[in-house]
Amino acid sequence: MDDDLLDADCLMPELTEPRLALFTLSEAHELLDVLHHFGAADHDWSAQARRFAAELAARVPSQEG
Known about the structure:
By secondary structure, this protein is mostly helical. Helix 1 packs antiparallel against helix 2. The longest helix is centred in the middle third of the chain and has 16 residues. The termini are far apart.
């Protein structure tokens, strides 16, 4: 991964409790939104973002359900 892709403002804070092994449904949908955004942009990562968005969408239940 390119170092210039890491934004110091977006780094995760240190956790005081263990992480869940899986994303919550809300987290999965937030990540899907981010992947759709990057997939729509014109840059080197867009094809990979679209692929991961499709894979995630196939595995995550709809928010409407």
